[in-house]
Specification:
The complex is a heterodimer. Chain A is an alpha+beta fold. Chain A has eight helices and ten strands. In chain A, the strands form four sheets. A four-stranded mixed beta sheet of chain A has the order 8-1-10-9. A two-stranded antiparallel ribbon of chain A has the order 2-3. In chain A, a hairpin with a 5-residue loop joins strand 4 and strand 5. The longest helix of chain A is centred in the N-terminal third of the chain and has 34 residues. About 9% of the residues of chain A have low confidence. Helices cover 45% and strands 5% of the residues of chain B. Chain B has five helices and two strands; from the N terminus they run αααββαα. The chains are: A alpha+beta, B mainly alpha.
Amino acid sequence: MKSTRRKFIKIAGMSALGWSLCPALFNGSSRAAGHNEGHSEEHSGSSANAHGHGVRWAMAIDTARMTDEIMQKCIEACHSAHNVPHINNKQEIKWIWPETFHHLFPGQMNDHFHTNEFPERKALALCNHCDNPPCVRVCPTKATFKRPDGIVMMDFHRCVGCRYCMAACPYGSRSFNFADPRKYLKESERTLEFPTRTKGVVEKCLFCYERLAEGKQPYCVEVSEGTIYFGDLNDPHSDVRKVLKERYAIRRKPELGTSPCVYYLI
Amino acid sequence: MYDGGKIIAGLAVFVLLFTFPFWYNIGNAAYTKPKLELPKDAKECVEKTEWMRAEHMQLLNEWRDEAIREGHHTYKNMVTGKVYKKSLTKTCLKCHAQKDKFCDRCHESLSVHPYCWDCHVAPKGDK
């Protein structure tokens, strides 16, 4: 076959066209596929399911009706069911705890009709299960990750205790086990239903995912005498959605853009 | 041969040292399988006994990932299709309630030390 300059230039031109088109085609399709399967373990935790489809668990705490006794009951129910040790110093472990308004809502205290009037009023603080959780983004082992239903989950088996998540969390929702927690949990107090943790592991509230899996409500909600509402944010008929429609509600530190899923009814 | 005596002596010392593990163990009892306390109210394990003996560690590893990371909580027996909850304490130890006379006995005889019990609470007798 005789090769002419003309033919050579033609082939070169077609090849160049092919080179520029093919990668675009392949990339497009592979990116779409990757997106579909990857999202249960999406590391960045971008709000794929936040306000779209599927279940999105959320909580609303009625601060007006919440009393000290109810708060104690909620804490007791949660901590005893999850084998949280009793340590009464700076190294304490807490999944849910009472906090004053001016600690809960530091940037929102100039709101004259709501928070401002009761800076010393207390409400429960816990993990906010953010739509955009900074703790998930910094975890080097994916020990903490975002589930499709919005729960910011911990896999204690993978936690190496680096505490990046604690530095990243703007709400102080995470505690580190500086010592073996079993030393602070008498044998008679331990429940067999939930493992303890070990020294060198970070822990926090998991929205009682193990109870949700059985169709039950979280422990704190169950004993809260109706002062905590819980449900699916994507379901317009759920308890949370109904109460959020009727009452004025705020979230903690909205200016940070973490988009918490724990609401406070004022 | 130059220095034949030294070479042979050296070789003898070498062979003696090299085979040390063999003659050191002469007279020691051979490994015997410890007597395991099997569950009384159950006949079958989650899978076949031989399979469990060889694969239970992998099975548990899969269970914990699937239960915690993927939210799948049920396991089906590969042959009979019987369904189990994927849980260390709520499944394995419901049947093998005496951990110290089952899991531990076997593990100790083999010098295996799973760290699971640092967190998972075994029914009584846990240390």
